[in-house]
Amino acid sequence: MAIQSLGVGSGLALDDLVTQLLDAERKPKTARLDAREKTVETQLSGIGKLKSKMDDFKKSVDDLRFDYELRGREALASHPSDTLEPFTAEASNSAPAGEYKIAVTKLASGSRVETGNPNLLDPNDPTAGFASSKSTVLNSGSGSLTFKIDGTGDSFSINVKAGMTLEQLRAKINSNENNFGVNASIINTGTADGGAKLVFSSTITGTGNDLKIVNDNDLADLNRVSTESSDGLTSHLTPVKSAQNAQVTIDGIVAESSTNEFENVLENVSFEVSELSTLDVLGDPMTSSLEIGYDTKGVEKKIRDFVDNYNSLMSEINTLTKYGQSELEDDGALAGDFMARNIQSSLANIVSSFVPESGLGSLFQLGISFDDKNKLKISDIDEYGQESGEDKLAAALEDNFDEISNLFTGDNGVASKLYDFTYEYTTFGGLLRTREQAYKDQKESILDERERLELQMTNYEDLLRSKYQNLDKTVAQLNSTGSALMAALGNN
Known about the structure:
It contains 9 helices and 17 strands. Helix 1 runs antiparallel to helix 9. By secondary structure, it is of the alpha+beta class. A 5-stranded antiparallel sheet has the order 1-15-3-11-12, with no helix packed on it. It has 3 domains: 252 residues; 86 residues, no CATH class; 118 residues, no CATH class. 27% of the residues are buried.
């Protein structure tokens, strides 16, 4: 067991000597481990930054490698009124270009049924109404009402018991779990007799989709809140408003839909109507313009984002691989790293490659070129007697829209090859992730070496203390003997 304090017996500074010997043994080994760990952490950080940036770049080119992302169509609607928008439209990528004049003349609506005249209170008269919202719907017995739309097959039923009021009937209808869109409400008419109307409205739109209310048990009291008898042969209430289709005119041709959405009335175009078109001074509906064209703005943004993302990745690689210009400037985390430089040159080769499937051939014909720092640019000035990059991009969007897709997509497309290349580095088990794991393993190894070093130093300290403990004892004995001799000689 190690002695806690040496030199007590001998008077020698043996504790300090042990400490100095331990420091002399520990410091060079610790310094080597610190230097190795710093190098590994720097490289691990650099690889992590590069991998993260390449992941971001991979995501950006992923948006460019699919045909549907670059063949977008745009539906542009312009209306005669700045405050009224009768419809909105969307076009799929296969929609043919064209321009249409559209007017909304009808909106799709559901049906509406009302109970009879509040001033007629004869319960046997189906045209009679109710004195108030507290009025009894069924005076005796029990029965049921079925609400249905024949055209859609929607249906639900409720039970009605003697003494049920209008308010209770309304609540039971509205809360039914199978209710398909029927809303019951009560309107107090304010007449001298204080009558009330029970109003049924349906959200099911389209001509022929009128709400029907069947008096299942043909009870006389329930004739006042139903449209027909159980066999459908006798009519009671009739809709005050029938369900109707939405209606538009497209270049003068009438088109209808059972809802306010029109699908493929125009090939691969959908639009939804929400308001009637404004009327002119003669009372005729004014038309809006709908133009189906290429989504040039959306594609242009994707192209410019691609240039920015590429340059961001190149800047990161330049920062990571640079050498300091002086002793005051540190090298990059991956200075001179072969893999990082290979990534940079390989990406540049892909970007400048020729794509035979596209009439544009290369990104250069799209207005994208390299600057003097090997970054991409879309120049705004004429160079070498040719059009500027901005002019080329505008011309390609206008005249060769579909060829842009061919340039980026497909097996030989620029975006497809860039994605495949970055995937090999960033995927699980890819080159960068494998290298990142190797650095993590090195850090673990250094930690193990530190633990072994501490164990060695503990053993070394025990050895030194044991050694100098004996020296301390020997010197102490010698000192004791010398003192005894001096005392004996002094007495003589």
